[in-house]
Protein 1
Amino acid sequence: MKKTHLIAAALSTLLLSSCLSNKAQVGGVGGAAAGALAGQAIGRDTQSTLLGAGIGAILGYAIGNEMDKYDQQQLMSAYDRAPSGQPVAWTNPDTSNQYQVIPQPAYNGPNNQVCRKAEIVAVIDGRTERTYSTACRNSYGQWQLQN
């Protein structure tokens, strides 16, 4: 895939994600972006990139759709307290879905906000799914998931 196509895809993802209002949609867009990058790295052609984006979107949507308020609190706690590279795991008592979050080191993001990326591995209905998220601290010091 040409650099210009990759840049256009990234910008399209960012623009689309700014219009999203729920966890499933945000997860789908994030999954699509990660899947497209993985597809391009593996296949090095447009077809692999598109296939990766499709698979990533489905997995990201599923994970975002299944995370409820309890799971969001656990995720924010992992962003807040977990050492970089150390997995944090929990099982939702209502859904029995299992999650493992591996936060990465903090960095200065947009507007000099403190941000962290994390890998999320979820077991939902017996299927293991993987996605990535980013959260940045707002002006009140709370973590907010980024689109």
Protein 2
Amino acid sequence: MGVNSFDEWSPLREVVVGSAAGYDAHELDLSFRLFFTAFDDFAGQRTMPIAARYTEELCEDVEELVTALQQAGVTVHRPRARRGTSEIRTPAWRSTTTPALNIRDQAIILGDEIVETAPQVRARYFENDLLKPVFAHYFERGARWTSMPRPVMADTSFDLTRAHDRAMDPGHALPVDGGMAGADTGAGGGVEMMFDAAQCLRLGRDLLVNVSAAHHALGARWLGRHLGERFRVHLMRGLDNNHIDTQVLPLRPGTLLLRGPHVLDHLPEPLRRWDTIYVPEPDLREFPSYGAQDLPLTGLYIDMNVLSLDESTVIVNSQAPRLVKALETRGFTVVPVRHRHRRLFAGGFHCFTLDTVRAGSGPEDYF
């Protein structure tokens, strides 16, 4: 069998788990600053080193996740590790590639198809090359394999609306990579299609898609045309500036994990009737303390980024005890796995994994 995954909760059989090896810095270029809204932080600084201790501890935690999955009977695949510093240079920009850690960001499994999406951060442009052996393995087993069009990612490719809005405030400078505008992009030299797979959640025949920028909208339009009648695409506008899975995650048919009641207004009407579990308000004491030269990339709700093994079993960060208790109170079996530096590396267990085979029989209609 090739890939087979239509939702977020059917019994998990095979999964890819990302690798943090070699993650030693963030590239603070235009695309990074736009994605993480760090318009004025570390002004004039091009790279932000990551302390080796943090990466070593992250690698330990990722291996604990692999062990937990294997003990649950799940087959685990891994990407190739990034070795050394891999410089990227195109006619439009230069950067340094990141390891394939948050692998759900760059690919989505839709039934029997792998869809690679168009990156939003330049440093991630060739990240999926580290996953090519895994994807080739599934292709040989019968999977379909598609790539969204690759963007040029020149300065003019990005929707700068939010950056301009922020720059209106005193002390906030609009980020530019002057001298790397590259080439005309998009229709008539405008915004390009850039869209992360982690903007999507799968619920059988229905696909929830978060859109908060013009380049997201282009990616969502491509995805809708590509899928045709196979899936129903529901757009949720402005739910989150980045990814959907720190706002809402379906845990099983009829139950949603939500960041808060405000999310309900963004959901399709059928989902508003589902049971809801609200994430307990985060406690800063559950997170490590960092210094002035460390760069937390996510908010405190990152721990809701859980991974379902089946409709009743969820892998949850052991460092979030109140979330563990909230899920157990609602009848879920929780598999606790440690994840210390989730804010520094912008991902949780859902981000770190790509569930390639689940035991669901097909695109069920849960609406």
